Amino acid sequence: MERRELDFAEAVREAIKQEMQRDSRIIIFGEDVGYFGGLFGCTKGLQQEFGEERVRDTPISEAAIIGTAIGAALTGLRPIAEIEFIDFIGCGMDQVFNQLAKMRYMSGGQLKLPVVIRTPCGSRYPIACGAAQHSQCLEAWFIHTPGLKVVIPSTPYDAKGLLISSIRDDDPVLFIEHKFQYYARRQPWIRERYPKLIEYVPQEPYTIPLGKADVKRDGEDVTVIATMMMVHKSLRVSEALEKEGISVEVIDPRTLVPLDKDTIIKSVKKTGRVIIITEENLTGSVASEILSIIVENAFDYLDAPIKRVCAPDVPIPYSPVLEREVIPQEEDIEIAIKQMVGV
Amino acid sequence: MNPNLISNELLIEMYKKMLTIRRFEEKIAQLFAQGLIPGLMHLYIGEEAVAVGACMNLRKDDYVTSTHRGHGHCIAKGGDLKKMMAEILGKATGYCKGKGGSMHIVAPEVGIVCCTGIAGAGIPIAVGVGLSIKLRNTDQVCACFFGDGASNTGAFHEGINLASVWRLPVIFICENNYYAISVPFVKAFNIKDIAVRAQGYGIASAIVDGMDVLAVYEEVKKAVQRARAGMGPTLIECKTYRFRGHHEGDPKMGLMYRSEDELREWMKKDPIVKLKMRLINDGTLSEREINEIEKEIDAKIKEAEEFAINSPYPPLDAVKEDLFIGG
User: Fold this and answer.
1) Could you tell me the end-to-end alpha-carbon distance of chain A, in angstroms, rounded to an integer?
2) Of residues B46, B80, B67, the one with CA closest to residue B210
3) Is B128's CB within 8 Å of A27's CB?
4) Could you tell me which CATH number the domain at A214-341 has?
């Protein structure tokens, strides 16, 4: 039997489509998601299949997009709101952190908010240089806001299963999609370099529970905790280092809220060496939070200080040579691992 | 407006509702002064005609989005006085188990699904309620209350525009009380009437004397009929005034930035006094009946007060509850 392979956007689209077929309360809207099918093709064909009532183009109004999702969720629908780039979410941020995240708690549990906000993040170097306002990784903002679940898948298989879980979840979920992960079909070199960006995805709907990390690679010498594109970069480096006799374990948390602390701590106890690799700016990052958790829970097991490999605390610059410098690259990961194991 | 169309029963109901709001708020002011209320209180005294005139057009299954000055909306829509008072005192028996407080009282059982302390933030949420009504194919409506201050937020622009584009059954009710805390209308607007903005969004609008409950009732009635008929949203500006400060504890009850003359002029338009005089002059109610209504309302307020005062504070374990449905 031929094993069907999907890329990241196809997996996202299939999840939305199958869920919309299953449950007529699910609607999706945002900038360019309707007729055009989404800037990255994630909603292609959905308006044709489900009609203009359930698949809606909106004006450039992020506060209205998110607020509309909230109001619809409060009164019986299960909306998916798309924010075209995570960088634009600031325009609707009050609706995210003061309204969506807080409404259930401050109502004493009277209200239910089954909202999914899908939004792409991250650098597309060297495909397209998005500069400071179209390239950011802002997931740390949202883990700092109690009341939101935060999902950051790295592979098509995870994307489909986690998105279906997010849509079926009765709490608000911010579903962040690293947009470099959309390009493996269009740019063959990407697939060659990061083979897991196109992979077998079962046709039938399936769920992956929120709060369950995935060990993407087993190893003994060092634990790498990586998110989104950094998972792929870390896997590539780890395979190369295997030939040099360095055994790297790669853990993808997959969801930041809830966070699977157990899988992380278990790996740390096994290897005693930890590197946390994310694309965010370093200060106040998810990487910093994971580091704190490890220090609090497994300090005695550490054989070396934990390292973080993140972007420096600057906006993303436009010029490709500068963007490359800012975004963690495979050589940065390789150097960090070698230093960690003392090679 | 043809007041003859309004039955005596309805007029009496409006009077009772407005008076209930007034007495409730006076009780809150008193408890606040006694130090029994832990939070900020934004009282609705003076603006009762707006909530009551609007909500008398709504069914129980219609929706409301409310604001930081929301007690009046909740009472007008049929909220439970005991649970409101308990919430305001921070008690476990309150609407939100003491986690929301005055600015966040929601009462989904009577359609109040949003009560936010961020000016303007309820507007886009009301749009979503409208979308849900439209897609569920019911004839419900959503009344979205907000103030003059909120009318200058981006959320106002984004929300009303989208409601117009999608022709949603939302009635945007602007309670223009002429002050955004201390900043007067003329320093925040270069127009005389907020309602003129409706033209820029392509929706219907009206300007109403917000101190006249019948005027509000009539205008909202038309908007509700349009909304139920699928004819889209309306922006109704109600010119009104708060008789107290922005919040309890506002220095000199707001007279740092308002003149006593201005306050006195508006107090002459007291909507409750106006309706009471009409009811008496029409012979609809006798003095004795008016007194009985007052007694009945005072008893309800007292019952709510006692319930709230005698209720326990929430258990400390409650801190971690209600964040997510799954724990």
Assistant:
1) 45
2) B46
3) no
4) 3.40.50.920
